Each structure stands twice: as structure tokens, then as C-alpha cells.
Amino acid sequence: MKYTRLTKEQLEELHQEFINFLATQSITAEEWNDIKKNKPEVAEDELDVFSDLVWEGVLNQARYLEHFSKQQMFLFRIGEVKMTLVGVKVENETIDIRTKEGYRWLQDNLLNESVQIYTSTKVISEDRNKDIFALITQGANITQGELFQYFEKLIEVEE
Length: 159
Prior knowledge:
Elements: H1 8-13, H2 15-24, H3 29-38, H4 40-61, E1 64-68, E2 72-78, E3 82-90, H5 100-108, E4 115-123, H6 128-137, E5 141-143, H7 146-154
Antiparallel strand pairs: 1-2, 1-5, 2-3, 3-4
Helix pairs in contact: 3-4
InterPro entries: DUF6495
Protein name: Histidyl-tRNA synthetase
Organism: Mesonia mobilis
């Protein structure tokens, strides 16, 4: 397994897609029930393969990621060859940008000396999706990139 198995809730959401996946392998509902009952290891393998296929599809589409911690915000733009980061660090320990009040403080104080904004670029490894998945497992979320694009207009970001 390349990624992680989808959760029970995710699998329930993708129920129809999983049925289609089984159908592409000529596995009927009756056969699937038999596999689950009599060959649980085969059923586990099928769930793992399906999970990896779903992750590949999601990761292939990912262009932006965001990760927030108490005093830092990491905004990523993911290209085919390189990944660009816009980082924001609040050096005021009383501020938690994950809260509505803290985020509002950040919006009002972007130019404050206790706010550091920086950028960085790195070449993506041969396995782009694995790089993205590593960031997701560390807490990043896939987004549409509005926040990255906002900061891109404020500061000079390498293409």
C-alpha cells in the first residue's frame, strides 16, 4: 500500500465508486460478500488497492495545500516540478491564528514587526504525490489556493 487506507466514513462516502471498482474486476456483490466472509485478507487487499487509487486521483489534482499551527501558516503551491511555500510566522505567543480572534489579529497586523512572511521553493521528488501525501499526513489540507494567491499579490513569490 502506497498511502493509507480510507477511513470507514470515506469508504461509505465512496460506496458507489467502490462498487464500480469491483465491477471493473468482474466482482459481483454476491462474490464480494463471499470474499469478505471467506477470504478477509483478499478483501483487505482490495480495500487497499481502492484506497491507493482514490488517493492517486486526489493527489494528482492537488495544486494548493495549507497547514496552520498556533503561530504559523504554511501555504503551498504545487507545480509539476517544484513546490513553492509562503510561510507566515507570528512571534507574539499570545496569538493563536487557528482561532477566529487570532486570525483576525493576523489580518489586521500583517505589517506588524511580530509577523514574519517568507517564501521558499524546492524541487519536487520523482514521486510528486508522495511529497504531497507527506504534507497531508503532517496536517496540511488541500485547498483551492485563495490564501496563497492573496499572499502572492502582497509579496514577491518565485514562479
